[in-house]
Amino acid sequence: MRIQKLIIPVAASAAGLALSGNAMADEWKMALGDAAGGTQYELGTTFAELIEEKTDGEVTVKLFPNGQLGSEQDTVNNASMGLLDLSVLAINNITPFSPTVGVMTLPYVIQGPEDARTLTQGEVGEELTQNTIRDAGVRILGWAYSGCRRLTNSARPVASPADLDGLNIRVPKNEIMISAYQAWGVNPSPLAWSETFTALQQGVVDGQDNPYITIDAMKFYEVQDYVTDSCYVFSLEPLIISEGKFQSLSPETQELVLEAGQEATKHSYDYLIETEADIKHRLTEEHGMEIIQPANDEQEWIDLATGIWPDFYDSIGGKEKLDEVLAALGREPAPAE
């Protein structure tokens, strides 16, 4: 049965307390980088409903979308210092704090939703959770599955890396993603997420990449005309909790929090599978975007981008870590340096 979403206010109001009849309820703040309507919000509202239900209203969660509580990287710092309870953020924004998580952002390691689920809900995901506790002082409770990052631009159809010539593409401030574009022959512009729409609108950059659901939620169709149906990175967005906050909870409440994270993760996966095709159709039929298939089944993109893997073996914990991930997916080991 699909979980009914909560309607949670953006600004502070008495409605936040209406989630529970318990006047002594502990209200937690959750930061979201994205707007309402995307997978971050879907995961957040689902977790909020679950934790309120499981704690009989003793814990409620208020969501703050659109980066109201700071940039996604700021929220990692604030959670680690105990200044923020929860955050849902793009995986590339936690990688600077816990570099081994970067194995999930190497181009073409994750090639679809099933790969993403296998890794995040298995031994690899558990190891990355322990690493983020150690490295960043935050704990991954769950995952939002947003889908493959699709290249969009306002200039022309792009089917091959050569078509990128002369285009200025926004990327996150993430060395792996920057290197992937450099391998395709362009020098991308690293911009904060909060600056991206304005940069596209003003023509400072020509394009960006994000999943269909994010393109829709952020209304990029207003400033972008073309979508390349690529899948160089699968967009994962962990739900993190301050480890200090987590350790302050009773063992019983800790277990409930973990259960809520697991159930919200499952819901996020189902939500992606159920909605992505409809969103893709809406972008083309209602908003006029043109979808272009990558040339030669994306092979040139793959060959060039996977060539950067050895450059990041050290930062992700060694080639053997990548080989473990590939083995979990039933694939061959990575090439030697």
How do the strands and helices of this protein lay out in sequence?
Elements lengths: L25 E7 L6 H16 L4 E6 L7 H9 L5 E3 L24 H8 L2 H14 L1 E11 L1 E4 L16 E2 L3 H9 L5 E2 L2 H9 L5 E4 L1 H6 L8 E3 L5 E9 H6 L2 H35 L4 E3 L6 H8 L12 H10 L9
Parallel strand pairs: 1-2, 1-3, 6-7, 9-11
Antiparallel strand pairs: 3-10, 4-10, 5-8, 5-9
Helix pairs in contact: 1-9
Please, could you describe this protein's structure?
The chain is α/β, with parallel strands linked by helices. It has 2 domains: 14-98 and 110-146 and 236-276, D-Maltodextrin-Binding Protein, domain 2; 150-233 and 281-328, D-Maltodextrin-Binding Protein, domain 2 (3-Layer(aba) Sandwich). It contains 11 helices and 11 strands. The strands form 3 sheets. The protein has a 5-stranded mixed sheet, with helices on both faces. α5 links the parallel β6 and β7. α1 (39-54) runs antiparallel to α9 (251-285). The longest helix has 35 residues, at 251-285. Residues 1-22 have low confidence and may be disordered.
Gap from first CA to last CA: 48 Å
Helix content: 25-40%
Describe the global form: globular
Helical run tally:
11
Largest sheet descriptor = 5 strands, mixed
**Class of the largest domain in CATH?**
Alpha Beta
**β-strand amount:** 15-25%
Structural class computed from helices and strand pairing: alpha/beta
Radius of gyration based on Cα positions: 20 Å
Tally of strands = 11
**At the fourth CATH level, what is the homologous superfamily of the largest domain?**
Bacterial extracellular solute-binding protein, family 7
Under the CATH scheme, the architecture of the largest domain is: 3-Layer(aba) Sandwich
Q: How are the strands ordered across the major sheet? A: 2-1-3-10-4
The fold-level CATH name of the largest domain is D-Maltodextrin-Binding Protein, domain 2
Order of helices and strands: EHEHEHHEEEHEHEHEEHHEHH
* Tally of domains: 2
Indicate the mean pLDDT: 92
Could you list the spans in which at least 5 consecutive residues all have pLDDT below 50? 1-22
